[in-house]
Amino acid sequence: MEFQQLQQALNRFLPLPPAEWEEFSKILSIKQYTKGEYLIREGQVEHYIYFLNRGATRNYFIKDGKEFTVDFQFEGDFVTAYYSLITREPSDIFIELLEDTEAVCIPVKFLNEFYARYHNGEKIGRLMAEYQYIKRLRKEMDLLSRTAEERYGDLMKKNPALVQTISVKHLSSYLGIAPESLSRIRRQPPKN
């Protein structure tokens, strides 16, 4: 099944009955992207939610010529310029592909129609929004209460091979530390 990974991810929120899944899967498409491409750029309006079958992304914005990395997504994650998707206003962020990526594309226009027709779809949408809120709150709490070493360790647990390939500049921006501090953390032996 070409959308099996997505179906498994949605099942963590709420399993859709087979007839509803079949209807939902009709709106989906799979697209291949190349490292360095963008899912969205600042100033564009978001029209999709993406599910990463394979690959990784970096969300960032630019202020006064400086890039600020706000998030990374890896295989099995959903990614979108959420603020733009909801408000229909131009995005403030870029979503850059860090490696060749295969993504399931979910068009928001059809997703909203699916929500209107199926209570389960609407419920999944709400549960996913709640999950994103919790994820964002945890990140904010981590930035305020955990050390950079702990935050780096969490990221390493999620995707160690890819984290080793992300530039020090992007990782340090995400962790809220200077590049020199991240280089020092990377040189330390792992803690058990």
TrEMBL record:
CDD domains: CAP_ED. InterPro entries: cNMP-bd_dom, cNMP-bd_dom_sf, RmlC-like_jellyroll. It holds the Pfam family cNMP_binding. Residues 12-79 form the Cyclic nucleotide-binding domain. It comes from the Bacteria. This is Crp/Fnr family transcriptional regulator. It comes from Chitinophaga agrisoli.
